[in-house]
Each structure stands twice: as structure tokens, then as C-alpha cells.
Amino acid sequence: xxxxxxxxxxxxxxxxxxxxxxxxxxxxxxxxxxxxxxxxxxxxxxxxxxxxxxxxxxxxxxxxxxxxxxxxxxxxxxxxxxxxxxxxxxxxxxxxxxxxxxxxxxxxxxxxxxxxxxxxxxxxxxxxxxxxxxxxxxxxxxxxxxxxxxxxxxxxxxxxxxxxxxxxxxxxxxxxxxxxxxxxxxxxxxx
Length: 191
Ligand code: SF4
Known about the structure:
By secondary structure, the protein is of the alpha/beta class. Helix content is about 50%, strand content about 15%. The chain has a single domain, classed as Uracil-DNA Glycosylase, subunit E.
């Protein structure tokens, strides 16, 4: 008997919960594998869990998550329709940037999640998620662009935007995020 998509995602979450492939599990309270609809057409990928996420074991539940919820509401996409996760599944101490080796050893979980969900559209939040698909590119140059790629044999549309935490810190970046979400909303309607 084959496993349902929810069961497959639960299995990945279990593996993440047991993972010791880098040191981040040592300082984290909970793993944050990702959460949402296993049949999502749209997946959002951020950088790493923050303090609230680490406490609750859920992605984007702090202030960045509140802003993400607001942005989703502007395009009438309910959070229950999407899947949300991060490049790293445990919180880096003091929210420092992910290290190259942490990204290398952790992203097989993300890859497995995407292969199970098979989304049509991926919205990368911030530079680390953008660089996973487009190494060496700059988020300020390609934010808001609609890029169609074949990734791991999956046809994907990727739209990189700033991380919501950047929007909380900087008014110009918030404006860019709002503009980019309007473009995302239009793209979803037309496709
Ligand atoms: S951050 Fe990723 S690689 Fe590191 S321990 Fe957690 S799940 Fe494993």
C-alpha cells in the first residue's frame, strides 16, 4: 500500500525531528520541518526558523508570519491552501545567517518535500531560498521576476521576493514586497 502525500510529508518531518546532520539541533527547542497543504499549488520557502517558530515548531508564526498572512490576504490566497517551509529546519542561534554546509546537508529534506507536493509555483522569501534555485544571483535584481525552470524533472514557476523580515525593517522593501505580491496574485489568476 502506498503512502498518502500527508503520510510522506509526516515521514520527512519525523526524519527532520531526529536529524543530527549539523549542530543546529543542539541549540534548537523544536524542529520546524514545514507546514501546510500537501496538495498545494504554491509553496513558500523562507530562510530558517526564528524564535517563535522554534518555540512552536511551526513556520512563519512570529512577526514575519503575520506580515506574510497580510500579504496573502491581499491576493486572496488562504494560508490553508499553501505549504510553507524553510531552507533550514532548525533555528540558527540568534537568527544568524545559514552556513553553506548547513544548507548543503539540510536541503535534501526540502527537495524531498517538493518532490512529494509537486507544486506549480514556488515563492522564495529572501536571498537564501532564492540562491537555492538561482546560485550567485542577487535578490534585489531578480525580485518579482517570474522564472520558469525545470528543477529535478519538475516544471516550476519561481518568483523570488524579499523576506518578510526585511519588509518589517525597511519601508522601501515592504513596498517592494507589496508590489511583488500583487504581481504574484495576477500571475496566479492568469495561470
Ligand atoms: S538544520 Fe537541517 S541538517 Fe541541521 S540538524 Fe536540523 S534538520 Fe538536520
